[in-house]
Input
Amino acid sequence: MALIKKPTTGMKDILPREMEIRDYLIGIIKETYAAFGFTSIETPAVENIANLNSKQGGENEKLIFKIMKRGEKLNLETAQSEADLVDGGLRYDLTVPLVRFYSNNAASLPSPFKALQIGPVWRADRPQKGRFRQFYQCDIDILGEPGNLAEIELILATTTTLGKIGFKNFKIKINERRILKAMAAYSGFPEEEFDTVFIILDKMDKIGLDGVKEELVKEGYGEDCVAKYAELFEGIEKADNGLQYVCEKIADYLDDGVLESLSEIISSVDSTKEYDFDVVFDPTLVRGMSYYTGTIFEIEVPEFGSSVGGGGRYDKMVGKFTGNDTPACGFSIGFERIVTILLDNDFQIPGGNEKTAFLIEKGIEGDMLCDIIKEAQALRKSGTPVLVVRMNKNKKFQKEQLGKEGYKIFKDFYKNPIK
Output
């Protein structure tokens, strides 16, 4: 069988230029989140298949890379179902592993616990431009904090990170799952149909309100019910304070304190933010994961056509492992999307001394070579990155390639320099 030099379908090799940006990003992320009190953890790439199939991961549960049993546990002759063959899978996100980690280690962790996790995840998705089967996620989560201080800290930490990277004029869109449900109940949709209604509502940015109404009617919902639902969104659009307007309209269906809590999150972030962004109430924001129980949010950046991060509150998830619910809230930035934006904009890593390349002619050896290396060592000691390499025949092309990797200063060394 011939060897194949290309990566497995849906995977990619990362070249030095991109890797440099990724390392820089991870450094900024860790430094910023540490300043907010988040501590790094790591979980295994492989999770028990029962955890991954726990009906908490939405559509991602259809995309699991499953792992067959090994050794004596694998008996192909007697296997009658998938359960006889599979006992593990590659994680499709970082939230399910985090909740298992917390459930297993809570006695050894502070409360509340502020976790930072960066690592690869895998989804057996259809590969396309910008979408891979292996990619990095970057999550921060607060477990054990029942109040909206968790949301405020998560939003501030995330936006501070984006600001340090250089993003401006972006939006944090925010909503509440309880508002979504109350709006649907007020309009007359059956509770068992809420998820279907929300799937259609989630298309609002693509098909508009008229398109949402049309799809809801096609789905079989009554025109009076659909019209009442649409009137809520029209009223929010016209109101000076859309959040207050809708909460007052649906008050009979909404839990006490939701309006006050969401308003406090928005006002607190607005008055304490360090960088330039807006926090806006978006009643069409749904978020696809079924484990969200309260506040949900997304990041909208003008440079990218869709969300570059999101998260929310998931207070019931730990209880599925332990039997006792624990308040939890998390925010994930779209690491891969941010890398793509920076690469497309030819992002240059700021600060530090300029990278220098010493190109040495072939034939330089002995004391002369040692003198060149000593010169490089002195520059390295002062903080300047120095690459020492042999000079290629096509020196111009060599310098062009090194320039793409960020080398700005070149010094050529010849065996017999012209004086």
